[in-house]
Each structure stands twice: as structure tokens, then as C-alpha cells.
Amino acid sequence: MVLSLSAPAAPDTPTCAPVVTSEHSLPLEDGSEWSGCPTAAGELRGREPVLAMTVRARPVPHEFGPADVAERVWVRAAALQPAALVAVSSADGGVGRSTLVAALGGVLALAVPDPVIAVDMNPVPWGGLDERIGRSNAGTVWDAVRDLHTLTSRREIDRWAQHGLSGLLALVGETEGRGRRPPRHDEAAAVVEAVRRVYPLTICDVMPALITGVWRTLAAAHAPVLVARATTDSLRHTMRLVAHLRAAGYGAVADRSVLAVVASSPDIDRAVRAVVQQATTVVPAVVPIPFDAQLARPEPIDVRRLRKPTRHALVQLADAVIQRCADPRAELPVGAVKERA
Description:
Elements: E1 32-36, E2 53-57, H1 67-77, E3 84-90, H2 97-111, E4 116-120, H3 130-133, H4 141-146, H5 154-158, E5 162-163, E6 169-171, H6 185-196, E7 201-205, H7 212-220, E8 223-229, H8 232-247, H9 251-256, E9 258-262, H10 270-279, E10 285-289, H11 293-296, H12 308-325
Parallel strand pairs: 3-7, 3-8, 4-6, 4-7, 8-9, 9-10
Antiparallel strand pairs: 1-2, 5-6
Helix pairs in contact: 1-12, 2-12, 8-10
InterPro entries: P-loop_NTPase, ParA/MinD_ATPase
GO molecular function: ATP binding; ATP hydrolysis activity
Protein name: MinD-like ATPase involved in chromosome partitioning or flagellar assembly
């Protein structure tokens, strides 16, 4: 049986007099409070006015930039759509997918005011998020599968979760035997459905997109992310996957997907750069992630300690992802300068 994930229905847009604020309110101890609206005063989106919203955002850590992009990410991260879901997959294995989930999740965990959780959906007892998050207890996603009926609160889920160095929570993959095993895709999907009911943002580390169950998970996500190595073969396989998704009726996934191109060496061949450029005509957002020796090591990731170019690239990736997950009313007011930590 394949259990598909269901994307939450979009809430009705309230009607009110549009309000636009160009300056932020008094600073808060743990961030800034913003009031803003993406439309100009008196302008209507369609035929209905759009309700302004107040956003309580965390301060941007000084390690992250570019400043304008990071500010936008942190503001949008404080106004997510309900049960926001990011699904990370790939055309091939061995492309650094779990590493990217841990790194991207670390940035989002710093940006989102409430806890962010990652779920390892890989059906194999090796690799996955285990090495990239670290272990503080024996809990894994298998415990969540076994106790699925109890996953009704953060407290029940947290007892099986690992805590990353940047604050990301994770239900890591199962690597032991003796009555324990990695979950099937449908079992992991059921855990994701339970988790996203109680956390504002869930990130799924999904197996390569070789089965329709993975395609359905990508379709249920607000932000489907595809990961490719910075090689001509990996990029071309990814573009073929996107074309196949369109042909199979999953054009909406292709239309909102984000492609992260992960470099495995400091130098990128000219032919690879050409294929990356070609990929921009197939995928709406393409974000290159430069080589970073810390990402290449099999150890827990603290995104604040990565190289500056890597941090900037991850912020660009987070910007593309959070744009798809955030309430469209959450925008940085024109002329406002956000507080930085």
C-alpha cells in the first residue's frame, strides 16, 4: 500500500481594509515585530482587499547573508502556511541529499520561531540523517512508526527526536536490526502526516524519486526540492526526472520545484556550468551549493560554522524554499531595516 500525503487546503483570505506599514514596531527581546502587506495601500489583490498581518520574527544571526535575502527569509519564516512541508528528493542516490536536508534544515531552524523537524524517510539502514544530525538518544523514525497513535503532541514526538547543532530536530533513520527496521515509504508518510500536525515546518529526506509514492509526497509538499551533484550526468538525470513528472501528470511539482546543485569539488567544469544554465530553463529555481569540506565530512553539521560562500548559498536556497511555504502576506516592508543578532 502507498499512503499519499495530503497538502492542506488554503485558508480563505479574510476581507478588510488593506494596511501597509513601512516601518517595524518596537524591537522585541527575541526579534522584531513587523506589520506589512505585499500590496500597496488601497490596492486590491484580485477583487478582494488583503488583510495585513503582524509577524514576530527572530533576529538574523550575523553569520548569514546576503543581508537583504536573509532578512526576507527570517520574516517569511515567521509567517508559515499551516502544516508547511518541504520534501527533498533526487533522481539518483549518492548526491548529498541527506547532507542538504541537514544544512537547509539548520538554516530554517534558526529562522523559524518555533521548532522545525526533519523526518528521514529513506527505507535503507545506512546513510541518511543520522551522521549529519548526531545522536543524543536511541530514538529513530522506527520508534515513531511503532508508536504512531501516540504522536499527538510535540512532547510525544520529541522523545524520539535527535537535536542538531543548529536547533533542527530530526527523526533519524533506523540502522539497527533485531526487531527494528527502516520504515516503508507508506509508514514514513504516516509519521510525516502526524508530525506536521504539531510542528510549523517539516522537512522530509525522501528516497530517490523512482516510485509514484515519492512523486505523491513531492506533490503534497509546499516546496519540492530536488538535489543533484554538479556533474553533467546527475543534472541531466534530474532534468529527465522533471520531464517525466510533467508527462505523468505531476506538472505542478515541476512548476514549483527547487533544484539544489551540490558541488563535490572546488572547481566546476565548464560543461557542468553549461548544463546548470540549461537546467534554469526546466526548473523554476536553481541554487548552486559550493564545495565545502565540512559538508564532505560524515559528522553533525552546524551551519553557522560553514564557509561564508556556503552559508550565503544556503540562505539563497532557504529563500526559494520559504517563499513557497510562507503566507504571501508576509513581506519585508519597504524601507525597513531588520535587527541583526
